[in-house]
Amino acid sequence: MADASYPDDLLYHAEHDWARVDPAHPDQATLGITWYAQDSLGEIVFFDPPKQGTTLTKDSPYTEVESVKAVSDVMAPLSGEVIAVNDALADTPEQINDDPYGEGWLVKISLSDPSESESLMDAAAYEATLD
Amino acid sequence: MPEDAQTLRRGPLHDRHVAAGAKLIEFAGWEMPVQYEGIRAEHLAVRARAGVFDVSHMGQIATRGPQASELLQRLLSGDVRKLPVGGAQYGVICREDGGVLDDLITYRLAECEYLTVSNAANHDKDLAWFSEHAGGYDADVLDLIDRFAMLAVQGPRARAIVRQLSDGAPPGRMHVFERSVAGAAAVVCGTGYTGEAGVELLLDPADAPAVWDALLDAGAVPAGLGARDTLRLEVCFPLYGNDLSEERGPIEAGLGWCCAEGTGFIGSDAVARARLSPATHAPQRLAAFVLDGPGIPRPGNGIGQGGVVTSGTMSPSLKRGIGMGYVNAAHATPGTPLTIDVRGTERAATVHRKPIYSKEA
Question: Fewer CB under 10 Å: which end of chain A, C or N?
Answer without folding.
Answer: C
